[in-house]
Design a protein that fits this description.
The structure holds two protein chains of two kinds. Chain A is mainly alpha-helical. In chain A, about 80% of the residues lie in helices and about 0% in strands. Chain A contains three helices and no strands. Chain A starts with a helix and ends with a helix. Chain B is elongated and about 110 Å long. Chain B has a domain of about 120 residues. Chain B is about 75% helix and about 0% strand. The chains are: A mainly alpha, B mainly alpha. At the A-B interface, helix 2 and helix 3 of A face helix 2, helix 3, helix 4, helix 5 and helix 6 of B.
Chain lengths: ~70, ~475
């Protein structure tokens, strides 16, 4: 994603960012992305190990729902 | 994180964002200027994106959990772990989810709560037994999870609130939880459920610890009407040394807005004690206080406090307010006019020097006829006509015309009051003659002449001499009734 797209997306996320200087926008955008990505990774790891703990009949349902 | 701003609402939002974001110092500093509402919007956006990850999948999975018994689900919760359980529980029927949660340990429930979408598990929390909630709270307090506790306190039922307050003995912890609550209506509900002695102890924990004091004043500022005054009174009951140190913190952390709002609703019997604290003798402190009262639109609430000050403090306030420039002086006069506190303005005016009085007389608000009339009537009522005459000398022509016009109403009662005062006022006769000299209208000159003729010979002579000097006498003499 190029810089313009990133800023555009951040504007969609929160309108007030247009008041912030561009470097701040970029830093913030990156930090939000980093956090959401890492959180997604943690959640998927939790899902992977959690699915193994489910009863067999529910495991396939969970797998198709969450993957 | 370190405090980046004295604005507590922004600081709290930055702390909440810091749970999620790793930013460099420049970016944090730039966010300070974004405002609390925008920061909150950003946080809610992050949370929405975060909790939407795999939401549909968890919704689908939750629909299948109905085929399992409560016992099986409780066992399963431990097996799948807190993170997955938290997301699943948020999509389950709250009644069903609460039945499962009752079978979990407080430690595990605390872990689930930390991972769950607070909006989604609100109804589950409401259905949990009070004892279980308080055990979870104790565990979270041990781990300093105050942000989390504040958010979940927003969802607590009345019995759970009572249980938590009874179980948690640490007053500072309770105060900190209250500080992090987001729903201010619920905050008031919580405070209402705490008995007076415990409440006093919690507020005292804030007043005795300078680090907790900003949180205490924030809580006081965010509760509803009668509670604000109840908490403010507890604060005001502290000894002078404690209050002095609180003034110092309020000054350093720019907390005057919340402090003034609290002081405006406390029992007036505490006013004198608070406003005469030694720490308020400091000119820098008073400057900040006056500026905060103006910028936070709290002048009307602040003026009665000034009234309770000792004479030397009032004098400092008068000079300090005028030193802030015409805008502040105008705002002070406007607030006094709107709230009918002319007695205070006239009292403060006596301390002002020549330059300061000239500045007041030049203010745009001093051109306003309703302000001039209020000033004149109050000056006459309070026996401060000498002060008014001094100001009249400094008025512009239009202002003087208004002064004369008003003084001639009701048979010239006010003009008579000023003539009575002129005898004992330095340059009083000259002041009246100067004011009256702006009159050209024959009917007004006739009215003035009629009042002149009612005066005793000595006063007539004194006025005649003054009127001669201003060039008024020749016109007035012609208008005198036969």
């Amino acid at each position: 994603m190029n810089n313009k797209d990133a800023i555009e997306r951040m504007h969609q996320r929160v309108g007030f960012l247009s008041y912030l200087p561009e470097p701040v926008n970029r830093d913030l955008d990156q930090a939000v992305d980093d956090y959401l990505e890492s959180e997604k990774g943690r959640l998927e790891k939790a899902i992977d190990s959690g699915i193994q703990a489910l009863p067999l009949w529910l495991r396939s349902i969970a797998r198709s729902a969450l993957r | 994180m370190n405090d980046l701003t004295p604005n507590l609402e922004i600081q709290v939002e930055l702390e909440k964002l810091a749970q999620y974001l790793t930013l460099d110092d420049t970016t944090w500093q730039a966010l300070v200027d974004a405002g609390a509402a925008n920061l909150r919007e950003l946080r809610e956006h992050i949370e929405q994106e975060m909790y939407n990850q795999h939401r549909k999948g968890f919704q689908h999975l939750a629909s299948w959990t109905r085929w399992l018994s409560i016992k099986q689900l409780a066992k399963l919760a431990y097996a799948i772990g807190a993170k997955m359980a938290a997301r699943l529980v948020g999509e389950m029927d709250p009644y069903f989810a609460a039945k499962v949660a009752r079978r979990l340990t407080p430690d595990f429930l605390g872990e689930v709560a930390a991972q769950a979408d607070p909006r989604k598990i609100r109804e589950v929390i409401r259905r949990l037994p009070a004892e279980l909630i308080s055990q979870v709270a104790l565990k979270q307090i041990q781990e300093n999870q105050f942000l989390l506790l504040g958010r979940f306190a927003d969802a607590l039922s009345a019995p759970s609130i009572r249980e938590v307050v009874n179980t948690v003995k640490d007053d500072g912890a309770l105060l900190t939880i209250a500080f992090y609550m987001e729903n201010t209506t619920q905050l008031s509900n919580v405070i209402r459920m705490i008995d007076n002695s415990r409440l006093a102890s919690i507020v005292r924990s804030g007043t005795e610890n300078v680090d907790l004091w900003p949180k205490a004043i924030w809580v006081i500022d965010h509760v509803e009407g009668e509670l604000k005054s109840r908490l403010g009174n507890i604060m005001a009951e502290q000894d002078e040394r404690t209050l002095d140190s609180l003034v110092d913190v309020a000054h350093r952390q720019q907390l005057w807005g919340p402090v003034l709002r609290a002081l405006s609703v406390i029992n007036p019997r505490y006013h004198r004690k608070i406003v005469n604290l030694p720490s308020l003798r400091n000119s820098a402190v008073l400057t900040d206080l006056v500026n905060a009262a103006v910028s936070k639109n709290l002048l009307e609430e602040t003026l009665p406090l000034v009234n309770a000050m000792q004479r030397d403090y009032r004098e400092v306030v008068a000079h300090t307010a005028l030193r802030q420039g015409e805008e502040v002086a105008e705002a002070v006069v406007q607030a006094a006019h709107q709230s009918g506190q002319w007695d205070l303005i006239l009292d403060l005016a006596q301390f002002l020097g020549d330059d300061e009085r000239n500045m007041l007389a030049r203010l745009p608000i001093s051109h306003n006829p309703s302000v001039i009339e209020a000033l004149m009537r109050n000056a006459a009522k309070l026996g401060k006509t000498d002060l008014l005459l001094d100001f009249a000398r400094r008025f512009h022509r239009e202002g003087l015309q208004t002064v004369v016009e008003i003084s001639l109403r009701d048979g010239g009662d006010l003009l008579q009051a000023f003539l009575d005062a002129a005898r004992d006022t330095r340059d009083g006769w000259q002041a009246i003659a100067t004011a009256v000299s702006v009159v050209d209208a024959p009917d007004m000159l006739r009215d003035i002449g009629r009042i002149y003729q009612r005066q005793n010979p000595q006063d007539q002579q004194a006025f005649r001499e003054a009127a001669n000097e201003t060039g008024l006498w020749s016109r007035l003499e012609q208008a005198l009734p036969a």
